[in-house]
Write a structure and sequence with these properties.
Blueprint: H1 2-9, H2 12-26, E1 31-32, H3 46-61, E2 65-68, E3 73-76, H4 80-92
């Protein structure tokens, strides 16, 4: 499974979600996703579309997140603890990485 985790971490949007969960879990909170409020127009950009249609489903399929589509909330999934050390390692060494983190 380690190779699959590196493929997952290869995408910056997925890294951001996993890092946000790492930070939120330290405070025991859920990650709140942006919502289209009927009273306030929201510009849906390409990244948000990719997040909802590609990256969140991929993370959910791998068991790394639980995604409540109705409440627009993401929490850690049953497999999150397996990738957590990699996310922590990358975050702790962000200054040493040759690419932008997350």
């Amino acid at each position: 499974m380690p190779d699959e985790y590196f493929r997952i971490l290869a995408d910056s949007q997925r890294r951001r979600v996993l890092l946000e969960l790492l930070e939120q879990n330290a405070q025991n909170e859920q990650l709140q996703l942006p919502v289209d409020d009927e009273n306030a127009p929201v510009a849906i950009d390409r990244q948000q579309i990719e997040l909802y249609h590609t990256h969140l489903p991929k993370l959910e399929d791998e068991g790394l997140i639980r995604w409540d589509r109705d409440d627009h909330e993401v929490t850690t999934g049953p497999q999150y603890e397996e990738i957590r050390p990699l996310v922590e390692l990358l975050d702790d060494n962000a200054d040493e990485l040759p690419f932008g983190w997350p």
